[in-house]
Amino acid sequence: MNIQQKLDEILLQVQKPGRYVGGELGSIVKDKSQIDVRFAFCFPDTYEVGMSHLGMKILYGLLNQQDFCWCERVFAPWMDMEEQMKAHNIPLYGLESFDPLSDFDIIGFTLQYELSFTNILNMLALGNVPVLCKDRKGLKNLVVAGGPCACNPEPLVDFVDLFMIGEGEGQIDALTALYRTAKAEDWDKEYFLKQAAQLEGVYVPLFYQVDYHEDGTIASITADADVPQTVQKHIVTHLSDVYYPETFVVPFIETVHDRSILEVMRGCIRGCRFCQAGFIYRPLREKDADVLCGQGKALCENTGYEEISLSSLSTSDYMGLESLLDELIDYSTEHKINLALPSLRIDNFSEELLAKIAKVRKSGLTFAPEAGTQRMRDVINKNITEEDIFNSCQIAFEGGYTSVKLYFMLGLPTETMDDCAGIIDLAQRLVDFYYQLPKRPKNGGVNVTVSVSTFVPKPFTPFQWFGQDDLDTIVKKQYYMKDSIKSRRISFKYHASKTSVLEAVFARGDRRLGEVIYRAWQKGCYFDSWDEHFYYDKWMEAMDECGLTVEFYANRHREVGEIFPWSHLDYGVNEKFLIREWEKAQASVVTPNCRQECSGCGAGKLLDATMGSKGGVCLESI
Amino acid sequence: MKAFDPHHTDPTQNALIEKMPNIRVFYSKTGPAKYISHLDIARCMQRSLKRAGIPVWYTQGYNPHMYMSFALPLSLGYESGCEAMDLRITEWMEPDEVQTRLNQALPRDLRVLKVTLQQHKPQEITYADYQITFTCADGEGFCTAMRAFYDQPEILVQKKTKKGMKTVDIKPDIEIKHLSATESGAICTMRTAAGQRNINPSLFTDLLIEQCDQTVVVAIYRRKLLDQNQKLWK
Predict the structure, then answer these.
(1) Residue A508 and residue A566: Cα distance in Å, rounded?
(2) Is A17 close to B76, i.e. CB distance below 8 A?
(3) What number of other Cβ atoms are within 10 A of residue A346's Cβ?
(4) What digits encode the pLDDT tens for the residues A219-269?
């Protein structure tokens, strides 16, 4: 019996079987006898989460454009399905061919968040692929990974053979082409990896030796002589010219984001100091409005989607937004398509913009002041004032909105109890402000939702030296805030902070954590980002067994000059710049955004290698 | 810029559209698509109609949506060669063209078999024919067991109703038209009550299989829908 037949015995026993059968519009089935390289694109979470991810859609389309390559999708089965698969001896399989994961040449994972790491191990094991690199002797089942968490891939080096640093579009073709040659010429794995390490943006941990001081900090990272000492991330220089899919795989079942997505730009001009994406995706590159319109129309026509979402780190900073919206709104009203604009900034949120969105739909509005006091916002370089917040809310309220959601972070560097109280105080003043507005909506009262998450210091940010608040402090702050709420017009939401602790451990972790991940997985930890399946105690046990502590990785303040586990990786922004920003943060000094003044972060060298520390090239290139 | 406003569509035009006969699309749902729920199929159809450029009429409410209705929703896990979806269109399009366009826009496992004008009302569906394939080691033995099971004076099953679980006798609602052993088990054609009083063949087969002394895998395929005179519902 093949996998598909065996599935008939179990699929009616599991929730949402539509996740496990493929066959969606836009899914690509090829004749495998004509294929040289079979690529399994694995998303280490459920189908609903993975199918919402833009990067997967881009790389799926791109890889399948190559005649010699067939890329399939693989997701983590939910626990009920996993149980059935194990009971019936069904290995994890590709959704297009129903072939087991172990049949694939390259198995690629996207690393979107630290808490999905254990799912990688679990998926490999379910697919009958050895979990450890050293147990995969041949070229087959090469495990590769990329995505934002690849900026510190060290905790995963026991499991992943090769990391793609930076943006995948420009490098993945070169990798599959090299693999094709290697397979045809029967190279051994190490020889292949050595060749691959010469490709731009490819990091092969095997060729880098890490030594530690007695206190556990890193003494040195030594590269073999024949690989680059520093691996520089790869980027796409011109976003308008690079491949973008004209169609998506359209899922049958409901997924988290099920719509056309347009990526309006990459990078961000803001430089909020807590935001890893704001640094690792530098330099800023915008896509032409005309190109975007064409892509949006093609996507809607080919998928039948009734919603287009404009995606970027800060969509209102996109220079061509007004003209893009004008053109898209004409199209979308005619074709009954919704426009969604996540990631709007509070300081340039205009009445015109609101009017444009309101034409499409009226739901709640979400803003992210991130901190409750001006001092705190200056520390994180959020560069918005209280006036901005009130102005935006006034526009929103007068435009008919009765509910706003505000995002904040807790546990930021230099934060005091006053800053925590400031968050609730701000919410209270917004409630009062609403009732003072003569032009407020006639129907009912206001609701201000305060959503607070725990700050996690990340590599390649000015806060990479900062020690995260310990669990007790965070919980104390959360209760303090909760207790200072006086109005029932304020809803307070906060997240379990134990997951943030673990996230902090892995974000800045080193190679020694590989064993922790392995042990925790063996104890039954996976799907850690799903609260109901997160076992903090098992993780702590695993840490103990390996002689490692949360304190060392998450809470310890690092001195400037310490070698980080990711010190041999180059994301464009240089350390001098990050140190400067770290010092300015502690002095509550803000840095202007890239359009106001170049801060000399260094990422411009990725666009123009000759520029050195001279600035402005990013914006000139648009 | 001309905004779409459902409240300002020409009322006479709408009256005309509402008088136009509904278009009935017969389609099959086979293979892995049997694991796609009815709601998900409805959404998929909506997107496919949009891709195909079929001029489907949108309801005129506050939140306009495509007007479409499905005759007899299929249970999860069943395949079918006789699914029916009714549409209202805003301008005439030849049935053949609807079929061609829609087939180009649908995913692999959904195929349009025929497009006609609606003849019978959905409420007129009274019976449905199913082909049931049983996979098991001893086909002959299974057939004997199934006949004995069917020959009981009454077949009592627990059926979910709006008022909770209820015991009903499904014997009068089930007719076995054909049953024979095959190389891999057995094959059966069953006619059941459908529509207002709807009896899923699984009510019968689940109970039967519980009582079998061998492992049996069941695959159910809906072949046709019939009216009260047991004539094809069109």
Answers:
(1) 8
(2) yes
(3) 22
(4) 999 999 999 999 999 999 999 999 999 999 999 999 988 899 999 999 999
Q: Are A81 and A9 within 8 A, CB to CB?
A: no
Is the pLDDT at B5 greater than 50, yes or no?
no
Angle between helices B95-105 and B38-52 (to 10 degrees): 110
Write down how long chain B is: 234
Distance between CA atoms of residues A393 and A398, nearest Å = 8
What distance in Å separates the CA atoms of residue A208 and residue A200, rounded to the nearest whole number?
A: 16
Burial of residue B224 (number of CB atoms within 10 Å: 0-12, 13-18, 19+)? middle
Task: Please list the residues that pair with A114 across neighbouring strands.
Answer: none
Task: Find out whether A255 and A362 touch, Cβ atoms under 8 Å.
Answer: no
Residue A434 Cα, gap to closest chain B Cα (Å): 28
Alpha-carbon gap, residue B101 to B106, rounded angstroms: 9
What is the structure's pLDDT at B18?
Answer: 66
Give the separation between CA A215 and CA A175, rounded to whole angstroms. 38
Residue pair A420/A374 in contact by the 8 Å Cβ criterion: no
- pLDDT tens-digit readout, A401-460: 888 899 999 999 999 999 999 999 999 999 999 999 888 877 778 999 999 999 999 999
Tell me the chain B residues in contact with residue A17 when contact means C-beta distances shorter than 8 Å. 35, 76
**Residue A323 CB contacts under 8 Å (≥ 6 apart), including other chains:** A289
The contact set of B with A (CB < 8 A) is 1-4, 31-33, 35-37, 40-41, 43-44, 46-51, 58, 64, 76-77, 105-109, 217, 219
Selecting from B47, B108, B219 the residue whose C-beta is nearest the C-beta of A23 gives B108
Do the Cβ atoms of A602 and A573 come closer than 8 Å? yes
DSSP A151-205: GS-GGGTTT-SEEE-B-GGGTHHHHHHHHHHHHHTT--HHHHHHHHTTSTTEE-G
- Assembly ipTM: 0.84
Measured between CB atoms, which of A23, A305, A336 is closest to B107?
A23
Q: With contact defined as beta carbons under 8 Å apart, do A445 and A432 qualify?
A: no
Max Cα distance, chain A (Å): 77
Record: contact B107-A305, CB cut-off 8 A: no
Contact, B187 vs B220, CB < 8 A?
Answer: no
pLDDT in tens, B89-137: 888 889 999 999 999 999 999 999 999 998 888 888 999 999 999 999 9
- Taking an 8 Å cut-off on Cβ atoms, the answer to whether B37 and A21 are in contact is no
Give the chain A residue whose CA is nearest to the CA of B44.
A252
Nearest-Å Rg of the Cα atoms of chain A is 24
- Report the gap between the CA of A263 and the closest CA in chain B (Å): 22
Distance, in Å, from the CA atom of B177 to the CA atom of B187, rounded to the nearest integer, reads: 11
Q: Which of B116, B103, B102 is nearest to B71 (CA)?
A: B116
pLDDT for position A331? 87
pTM of the model: 0.91
Distance CA A74, CA A96 (A): 9
Which residues have C-beta within 8 Å of that of residue A60, sequence separation ≥ 6? A28, A41, A71, A73, A245, A249
Instruction: Report pLDDT digits (tens) over A335-360.
Output: 888 887 766 665 655 666 666 665 54
Mean pLDDT of A279-287: 94
Check: CB of residue A372 under 8 Å from CB of residue A426.
Answer: yes
At which residue do the structure tokens 């000492």 appear?
A: A229
- Contacts with A8 from chain B: Cβ below 8 Å: 217, 219
Q: Which two tokens stand for residue A619?
A: 């914006």
Phi, psi of A339 (to 5 degrees): -110, 130
* Residue B122 contacts residue B69 (beta carbons within 8 Å): yes
Mean pLDDT for the stretch of residues B151-180: 88
